[in-house]
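Re: that backbone. Tokens:
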């Protein structure tokens, strides 16, 4: 009985394969970056409300709060 259930389930899993990675849309006008520091205005300190670097581009609006020391 187990073979009748497991074989079709295994076959369906093998046929379906792995899902494709979604392609992120290109961000128009976004500043390219490698770190959060690249998104900081005027190369100032990276603290307070900070714009994050996501997938190689700076976010449009600040989304992180980093404590200034």
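Recovered sequence:
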């Amino acid at each position: 009985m187990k073979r009748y259930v497991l074989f079709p389930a295994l076959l369906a899993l093998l046929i379906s394969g792995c899902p494709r990675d979604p392609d992120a849309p290109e961000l128009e006008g976004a500043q390219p970056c490698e770190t959060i520091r690249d998104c900081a205005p005027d190369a100032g300190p990276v603290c307070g409300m900070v714009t994050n670097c996501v997938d190689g581009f700076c976010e449009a609006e600040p989304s992180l709060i980093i404590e200034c020391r």
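The longest helix spans residues 2-16. Strands lie at 48-50, 53-54, 57-58, 64-66.
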